[in-house]
Amino acid sequence: TPAGGGEQLPGYLTLPRAHQRLWSAGASDASSTPPPPPLVLCIHGGPNERDYAGFDPWVQLLAARGMAVLSVDYRGSTGYGRRFCNLAHGNVRGMHEDVEDARRWAVATGLAAPHRIAILGASWGGYLALGGATEVAAATTASDDDAAASPRYAAVVAIVPLVAVGAANTSPAFRSDPLVAQYWRQLYGPSVAKDVKAAAALSPLHRLENLDKAVKLLLVHGERDPRVPREHGDAVAAAAMRAGLAGAHLTYAREGHAIRREPNVLHMWHAIERFLCDAFALPAPPAVEARLFQGNTCTVQWDSVGVYGMCEEEKADAEKTLAYLAWRHPRLASYDPPPSGTVSSSASSSPPTKAPRVDALVVHGNSMVACPLGAADLFVDVLYPAGCRAVILTGGVGRETPPLWLELASRGLKPLFSSEHGGGSAPPWSNDRPPAHVALPAQGISSKPVLDGFDLTLAPEALRAYASEADVFLELFLSRCRERGLGDCVAFGGNPMADGKDDTATASRRRDGGTAYVYLETASTHTGTNVEFSRATLRVLGLDDQTAAVAVVQQPQLHLRTCLTWQKQTGRQPLGWTVRPTEAAVGRSFAEQLRYALGEVRRIPAYAKADKAFCVMPDDFPHEAARRLEELEPTIQAALDLEVAAKARGSAAAKA
């Protein structure tokens, strides 16, 4: 390719198979020529290195994904004589200009469309890649006919990149060895080597304001890099995040200046191919078996572009699996409550045309705010009008109480058992200090510890009172009923199995009136035990647990197994219902929902085996979709790690 000063730059062009014949034939009929493929400028490191005409697996990977790859040997590359190598001495900007000239040549020859070019490089090549995107060469190469080419690159991939040069680079790796220091002084020239301002003009770290907002950035670094310390990548990532740029930053533990361990290499290049396919709107690459990534040491420091998102096909499969787990009985399938936190005076959609007869609603305990609120909506709109007068809240002794407590505080509620509600004396934890340990009365045993050692970060004055998760879960259900206009018709019925306040005769009289009673069963956390104790509570209330029509509510990911457990123990399918598994309705991220779903697609077949027989095995279980979901486990875990890191940064920022 032609370059400044009359130089000709050697290089190697690799084309996708579909474009090879057209390019080699030099077709002159533009109307019959398809649009050029997206182009990746591949920049070698060194700079005293070169590309070769041999097999390069990573170039072939990109070509197989539909991208053309242009490998450029810029001035300073070896293998073309001393003169060409020495052209770079004291002329770092000339290297940037060579890369820019190669990009212009690709556009001018029709090899690439201006807006469909990416640049990729490692080490010094990563420096030149970032330099190309931050327009280091812009001052000497700008021209009127290139105005349409801004931004110059759709995406940038920089692997272990040097981000500051000369006097602007404070890394000791370039100063500790006298011979190394001498080499870099010769390459930089006296001005860049000594003048911080001149060096900063050639340093991408100090030119990120020139990076177009539309450019996507992928940074990769080894955490033990002795030549270009990880701080180089961290600095660019931090600056890019502050500027609101789109990108990702991957670091690999126990890796140095090159990513060498096989699981890490495969992991990195899969991330790169996904990143570039997304940037060019190409079909997503095939999913990679999770076992090939086992043992990788990647940490995702930043990801705003979805490197660890899923392709549309994978996401569709995952959503289908979630929808399958969120099974609904046909008689309740048409009912959809409003999302969590939304209060309305009427149902958000028409209830079933013929309301089913239901003897009792059983709501399995969990920490999802949407569950008691949605269950209350189902009860107010469908089940109460059809004659249901018994509600059992089961479980409710989990560790994930903060979302429930926050909802309790936002509504200004008191614990159900406080004297304000006429429920007797306030519980021992209803005070101005968060509990370190709570013993909750439970059926079958004298007490059950909850919140043991829990660190409550919410200020005490922000909550009206402290209660167990079971209390809060119960109060949210009742408060929702009150908001929906059923407050005078719903009352607390106690814990029949634990406190002895109820008996069969009393429960029978209650079911004949207009008041619905909500009972609390707090002993168990395992699904099988939940169902056993809930059935025992039904019997105490005078209902036949084998024949009673029961509506079962559980959070979406655990819902199917809960219903299958009811079916196993009673011999009949319950009226299952749950909230739709969407982020808006559930209040949990898609990745977090998939983590639960992964557990369920493993547990259901395992628990249905003859040696366990905890639940019924459904005939239509989606084994293939479950397998594909398991293959996405590294992707899901990476997304969860990102969420944890984002929350940690948010907490740190709030404290600061």
Which secondary structure elements does this structure contain, and how are they paired or packed?
Blueprint: E1 11-14, H1 17-25, E2 39-43, H2 57-64, E3 68-72, H3 82-86, H4 92-108, E4 117-122, H5 124-133, H6 138-141, E5 155-159, H7 178-194, H8 196-201, E6 216-222, H9 231-242, E7 246-252, H10 262-279, E8 298-303, H11 312-325, E9 360-364, H12 370-383, E10 390-394, H13 402-410, E11 438-442, E12 445-450, H14 469-483, E13 490-494, H15 496-499, H16 504-511, E14 516-521, H17 527-540, E15 550-553, H18 556-570, E16 575-577, H19 583-586, H20 590-607, H21 623-631, H22 633-655
Parallel strand pairs: 2-3, 2-4, 4-5, 5-6, 6-7, 9-10, 9-15, 10-14, 13-14, 15-16
Antiparallel strand pairs: 1-3, 7-8, 11-12
Helix pairs in contact: 11-18, 11-20, 11-21, 12-14, 13-14, 17-18, 18-20, 20-21, 20-22
